[in-house]
Amino acid sequence: MRSVSFRFANVVGPRSTHGVTYDFVQKLKENSSELEILGSPLGTSKSYFYISNCIEGMLFGTRNAEERIEYFYLGSEDYVNVKQIADIVCEDIGLENVEYYWTVGEDGDKGGWKRDVEVMLLSLEEIKDDPQSTTVQTR
Q1: Average pLDDT over residues 92-108
Q2: CA angle 96-101-103, nearest 5°?
Q3: The CATH number of the domain where 99 resides is what?
Q4: How many domains does the chain have?
Q5: What is the pLDDT of residues 46-58, one digit of tens each?
Q6: Rounded-to-integer distance, Cα 119 and Cα 110, Å
């Protein structure tokens, strides 16, 4: 029996039904002049990558696994903070001068959710087989 396991950064795509981008779009549909953002300025910083890159990475991992049990990290080499995401969403839907309202988490947390990490970026130092790839890496 063989096993291939993956650890993903945040995966985004056109059918997303939750997450920070989806949340921002829904809030801005209700009120295009202000945006409530969980956490404190600038928010948490995390790595995001597109669903098609995730699928490519999974296919690569399953085709190139050499051990009986193999682990792959899938993600990107950069990260973005919550304020940058808010700016991108506002720009993409054509909104200007949106007022951001930050809600500091419980106990003064910088993150918007309980036990949320402040910075999340998977290590991509050991990219396997494809030095041009930024989506596939082994542990």
Answers
A1: 84
A2: 150
A3: 3.40.50.720
A4: 1
A5: 999 999 999 998 9
A6: 11
